[in-house]
Specification:
Length: about 130
Amino acid sequence: MPKVTLILQAGEYAVCRLLPSEPVPAWAEAAGFSSVTRTTDELSIICAAALVPANIHAERGWRLLQFQGPFAFAATGILSSVLAPLAVAKVGILALSTFDTDYLLVKATQLDATVRALEATGHTVQRS
């Protein structure tokens, strides 16, 4: 399995759920990391928790780890090499991918267990 470096991004993140017909709100387009996904069932937004208004249906308390990429689309096993030890450690995750790399969100309460599990299997976790 490949060994990767993950960069722990500063701050707390939130995962938000809006109605699928809603426009993307301005707060979701602020500088920094954000992800907007629209499906027929929902508009899902991941962004800094401090940006999310109190009246939005959101789960807060996530930490963001960025895989140090970029990775070629033909590369295999990158994400699974990280997710497998986290499954063994019983760490719940939310994973997403971009053109260049992957991102992993874990609850802040499970961050220490995440770092221990990853480092025990040869991965590196750096703080940004």
